[in-house]
Amino acid sequence: MDAASLIQNRLRLSVAAKEAFVRESADALARLARMMRESLEAGGKILVFGNGGSAADAQHFAAEFVNRFLLNRRPLAALALTTDTSTLTAIGNDFSFAEIFAKQIEALGKPEDLALGISTSGNSENVLLGIQAARRIGMRCAALTGGQPPKTPGGKLGPLCDILLNVPASETPQIQECHLFIEHLLCELVERDLFQQD
Fold this sequence. Notes:
- By secondary structure, this protein is of the alpha/beta class.
- It has one domain: Rossmann fold (3-Layer(aba) Sandwich).
- The chain has helices at 3-41, 53-66, 85-94, 100-108, 125-137, 172-195; strands at 46-50, 78-80, 114-118, 140-146, 163-167.
- The chain has a five-stranded parallel sheet with strand order 2-1-3-4-5, with helices on both faces.
- Helix 5 links the parallel strand 3 (114-118) and strand 4 (140-146).
- Helix 1 (3-41) runs parallel beside helix 6 and helix 2 runs parallel beside helix 6 (172-195).
- It is globular.
């Protein structure tokens, strides 16, 4: 396959993943935006976490809330649990890598907060343990995942969450591209609901 054909093929796959997600999960995405708004209005915050590219997504998402997305407005409380290298390496060294998010949630989480785990497979152990820790605190929980049959869509994360946003695709790049699309939509919906009522 030449470069031009490869580019066109990847574009088609990326667009198809987004279209399939919107067909299946637009209502769930709107519900999650409302849950986020409710947590923020109650004085809570969004705690978001994942590994690798999903860690980068967590940081990107939190930055859009704390700074701004499309509107100039007051900062919104969001924290990526992927950025404090001293905490991450201390927990990984003294306990295990599997606990890097759970321990932070135990330290920082409150019932009015919302936990958002990001895992393309839905099976990342440290993300699962983070969501379980949030559940014990009484936080509402959501996840961004990927996968389609014969795999279990959402993996092990699905049953642990109040809302699951699963991208029905099998390739990690398309799932991650759609996750960014979802994250931007969540930012825009929350920002609009809180600050641009018209």
